[in-house]
Amino acid sequence: MSITYVNDDGYYPLNEEYARWEHEGYEMVVGLEVHVELATRTKLFSASPNRFGDEPNTNIDPVTLGLPGALPVLNRQAVELAIRLGLALNCTVQKSTFARKNYFYPDMPKAYQISQYDEPINIDGWLDLPDGFRVGIERGHLEEDTGKSTHVGGAGGRIHGSDYSLIDFNRAGVPLVEIVSRPDIRHPEQAKAYVTELRGILVAVGASDAKMEEGSMRVDANVSVRKPGADFNTRCEIKNVNSVRSLGRAIEYEAQRQVMLHEAGQPVVQQTRHWDENDGRTHTLRSKEDADDYRYFLEPDLVVVDPGIEWIEAVRAALPALPAERRAGLAAITGQVANSEAIMVVTERGHDSYVMDVAKHGGNAEIALKHLQQSPEAAAVPAENVAKLTTMEASGGLTATQAKQVLADMVEAGGGDAEAIAADKGFEAMDNSELESMVDAAIAAQPDAWEKFCAGEGKAMGALVGAVMKASKGQADGKAVTALLNVKKS
Questions:
Q1: CA distance 324 to 326
Q2: In whole angstroms, what is the distance from residue 172 CA to residue 112 CA?
Q3: Cα separation of the two ends of the chain
Q4: Dist CA 401 CA 134 (whole Å)
Q5: Distance of alpha carbon 452 from alpha carbon 450, whole angstroms
Q6: What is the CA radius of gyration of the chain?
Q7: pLDDT tens figures, 323-380
Q8: Which residues have C-beta within 8 Å of that of residue 230, sequence separation ≥ 6?
Q9: What stretches of 272-364 show up as alpha helix (H) in DSSP?
Q10: How far is it, in rounded angstroms, from Cα 271 to Cα 190?
Q11: Which of 36, 123, 308, 367 has its Cβ near the most Cβ atoms within 10 Å?
């Protein structure tokens, strides 16, 4: 493979001209830093509101602006939310201190950020992905957020080439927890699953609304590549990725970029990079800083944070069921595996408790799960109504297609009796002999499809089932049709 090094920002689009990173015998090494704004009423060190969407520079005060003589006062609720999150991530909650992280960016008026450094509140945890893969958590530390810069006139909203910049200090001082994973992730899909699971935990424990589109959850990805078993290579950090999809694409691209450099004998320079969704590439922002560059020192205006065992255990006792536990409960009553698509989708939407309620009213949980996956608006219908619908479908009194139509009427009316709605629509269970005659007619009308089906072409079944459904005006049970076709085939 011939590779030409062009320049730092103008080479290596991901296309079929180049082999993928894994096909070159490399593995990626990824660690994620997830910045989460906590759901407090006020900021971390002042009484200014912690509120998204207000007019710029209205939620400010002397502490936010770093005015002389202004002193920080720690927000107790932020500490409790940090403890709650740490316990949910299986961390050890410990005594912690704050430090000044010095840098001269315009988004912090006082020219330093108050953050936890060598003594963070949460350490040594883990997060299990739905498939069982475990990602270690290095730390989860408290810090204040920075202001928001808007660069006007440049390409892609970046400072380079912009005409001028605007600063909004409403976000400055908002409480954050930065969750730092260990470099355990080896594939973009694992990174996406990690962020998705973490987001579910954040919402479940009430620590944050975790809205990536509003910036209350932001992801930095540290990416390097190596030959399996080799030492870690130089990494690059991709800053502030704001969607799960973009995260996967950014990691994929950056790993491939580094493989190209290694294969061409070019060095990978440690740096901070920006993901551009428009061109599908990462671009250089700045050289990567190390801890020494920030000149950390202990914050002199704040004392040690020592929550104590009683407070920690009280927070632990009040934790709600986490997504993994909820998925396991749903799997137990539906007979599906906990990481099935249906269970993942329904639990992420928060409708798992509704399926449980349907089961408590005597309904079929597996059928209810299917309906909630396909029609999330069904959760507005009383659970006892849907329970009756699922028992009719399970007993053969309604086909799956008929049940969908009855459910649609229930959603529109906000409830209703399934039997009455079915009777009003003239839905009746189809006689087996009538169904078999329709299947025979479909086979006779489409001999080519039947021949292909018998030869093992699964797609041909769709044409035959579709013909029966059309002849029955949607009243045939698709599963029964499929079963009859398989019987006749054998």
A1: 5
A2: 11
A3: 51
A4: 40
A5: 5
A6: 28
A7: 999 999 999 999 999 999 999 999 999 999 999 999 999 999 999 999 999 999 999 9
A8: none
A9: 291-294, 308-317, 323-334, 341-348, 352-360
A10: 23
A11: 36
